[in-house]
Amino acid sequence: MQINATAIRTGNILEVDGALWRVMKTQHVTPGKGVACMQVEMRNLTTGNKTNKRFNSTERVERVTLSQKEMQYLYNEGDIYHFMDTETYEQISLNREMLEHALPYLLPEMIVTIEFHEDTPLNVQMPQSVVLTVVECDAAIKGQTATGSYKPGKLETGASIMVPPYLEAGTKVRVNTESGDYIERA
């Protein structure tokens, strides 16, 4: 599917020069003179190489259409993570590199969306927010108000998070999977 270069977003999969690339960062650049452009940082899905490329705002690029399947995370063996299609019970294995952004929020039996390109898994999409348990956090400091001040905490997955001072260990919280921020008590 052809899209205008200004419509490129982080996470898109593009086909450039016959290879598949995942967009890592984008920046719209408008110089004083000349044509506006999109500065795009991309990672090659086959080799893992990174590159920066500029596309003129009038240029069109090929965005790869991906099929999506909801799958359940089962378990991991070292750096290999196993997922199961909940409809067909078919299992696939993905390496740690593909799941780097998802690992801080991934628990067994969690349902995630895996994107495929011609039966090859390319991306794992987490839900917008997940409910996790705070297993460790500092004690509240007397006189500290709840507005604007946060304390460090640790989630059951091992990820660090900043939580309000009134929360204690054992509390279930809702976490934004894109930013890693505390949303609310669950």
CATH class of the largest domain: Mainly Beta
Mean of residue pLDDT? 88
Number of strands: 16
Taking Cα atoms only, what radius of gyration do you get, to the nearest Å? 20 Å
Report the helical percentage. under 10%
* Largest sheet features: 6 strands, antiparallel
Polypeptide structure, described:
The protein is an all-beta fold and 186 residues long. The chain folds into 3 domains: 2-63, SH3 type barrels; 67-125, Nucleic acid-binding proteins (OB fold (Dihydrolipoamide Acetyltransferase, E2P)); 129-185, Nucleic acid-binding proteins (OB fold (Dihydrolipoamide Acetyltransferase, E2P), Beta Barrel). It is 0% helix and 53% strand. The strands form 3 sheets. Strands 1-6-2-3-4-5 form a 6-stranded antiparallel sheet, with no helix packed on it. It has a 5-stranded antiparallel sheet with strand order 9-8-7-10-11, with no helix packed on it. It has a 5-stranded antiparallel sheet with strand order 14-13-12-15-16, with no helix packed on it. β10 (111-117) and β11 form a beta hairpin. The protein is flat.
List keywords for this structure.
16 strands, OB fold (Dihydrolipoamide Acetyltransferase, E2P), SH3 type barrels, mainly beta, 6-stranded antiparallel β-sheet, 5-stranded antiparallel β-sheet, 186 residues, single chain, 3 domains
